[in-house]
Specification:
Number of helices: 2
Largest sheet: 7 strands, mixed
Radius of gyration: 20 Å
CATH superfamily of the largest domain: L,D-transpeptidase catalytic domain-like
Structural class: mainly beta
CATH topology of the largest domain: L,D-transpeptidase catalytic domain-like
Order of helices and strands: EHEEEEEEEEEEEEEEEEEEEEEEEHEE
Distance between the termini: 26 Å
CATH class of the largest domain: Mainly Beta
Length: about 350
């Protein structure tokens, strides 16, 4: 979800956050400018908006209210047709966003991942250096065999996750699969090629390059669970976020301080032995990762929850996937196309408050 917003020149930070949190309801928006090649921010009206249910026992309500009564109990990975966004009962401190499910009822936004179903023409020749791709269906099976076995060993890859393609395979029925080599253990997976869009060089062009590095800043507000990007001291971008979880039992809080983005990669397999949520122990293909501490805290896209405005993470700054991609392409350093990772000591400034 994206909102464009017209700002008064003399608006202060507190008013900016107030208006942003009132109007955004769980997404992000651009204030003054956005990249000319911003196709990654646009929706495809020919592709219906869907919602992938995160967990078993999610509830579809009669109205956008928790007191309206239950219509259906849902299962994880059920895919729902979404009619429109509506405002309903608060689902967290910063969001009242619900979705109307076509002909069925209403569901709070934090119960689903907004997704689409887009089928892609398979590419028969893959670069010897590998190519980056993104999942364009709600979820797909990633098989851990060579596909000649009768084994049912597979892992789900989810919409918006990114993966490095290292080859392809055609089965006896003529189905084309991409060979994925995950970047942590080197395990090999095979995914139907039509479920992955290969990302082109044009899509990964950096923007706002004319703005001097010292005139760009990213601000992370722990109190407001928000990220703001500034150019020349003026806000140009806002996103709700989820920073490190902190409660009576756990302290994964994102540490306040001044940092710089020092390491980027467009895809990362993240592993946590100490879970902060039900679905965050093994995260394949986390997209658009921009690290800003030596301990591995980063901005990155998030497909395992949609509860921005609430602390959730192990310290990282969880973002909607398009927002994480915006930060990845706007900030320094610029990652050369086709490169798996890039390290620097002179990236964009980050202020966590």
């Amino acid at each position: 979800m994206m909102y464009r917003y017209s700002m008064k020149k003399n608006i202060n930070r507190r008013d900016f956050l107030k208006y942003a949190l009132q109007g955004v309801c769980g997404g992000f928006f651009l204030v003054n400018s956005f990249p000319k090649h911003a196709s990654f921010l646009e929706t495809d009206p020919a592709t219906p908006l869907l919602g992938r249910v995160f967990k078993d026992d999610a509830i579809l309500y009669k109205q956008p209210s928790f007191s309206s009564g239950t219509k259906y109990i849902l299962k994880a990975n059920n895919v729902l047709p979404l009619a429109e966004e509506v405002i309903g009962d608060p689902i967290n401190e910063h969001s009242k966003l619900w979705y109307e499910v076509t002909d069925y009822g209403y569901i709070p936004a934090n119960s689903i991942q907004p997704v689409r179903q887009r089928i892609n023409p398979p590419k028969t020749q893959i670069s010897s250096n590998g190519e980056l791709g993104t999942i364009t269906v709600p979820y797909t099976k990633a098989w851990r065999t060579d596909l000649t076995s009768v084994s049912e060993d597979f892992q789900y890859f989810y919409y918006g996750s990114t993966h490095w393609i290292r080859g392809n395979y055609t089965d006896a029925k003529g189905n084309i699969y991409y060979k994925i080599v995950e970047d942590r253990w080197g395990d090999i997976y095979y995914v139907l090629a039509e479920h992955i869009e290969i990302i082109t060089e044009d899509e990964l062009k950096a923007f706002a390059s004319a703005v001097p590095a010292e005139e760009k800043t990213l601000e992370v507000s722990i109190a407001d669970q928000a990220v703001i990007a500034y150019e020349y001291g003026k806000a140009v971008f806002f996103s709700q976020a989820s920073t490190g979880l902190f409660n009576n039992e756990l302290d994964y809080s994102t540490p306040p301080g001044n940092y710089q983005i020092n390491y980027k990669r467009p895809s990362r397999h993240m592993v946590h032995t100490d879970k902060s949520g039900d679905d965050d122990s093994e995260l394949y293909g986390v997209p658009w990762v921009s690290y800003f501490t030596d301990s591995g805290i980063a901005f990155h896209g998030t497909y395992w929850h949609n509860d921005f405005g609430v602390q959730h993470s192990h310290g990282c700054v969880n973002l909607p996937i398009p927002a994480a991609k915006w930060i990845y392409l706007w900030s320094q350093p610029v990652v050369p196309f086709g490169q798996e990772k890039y390290v620097t000591n002179s990236g964009t400034r980050v202020k966590v408050i």
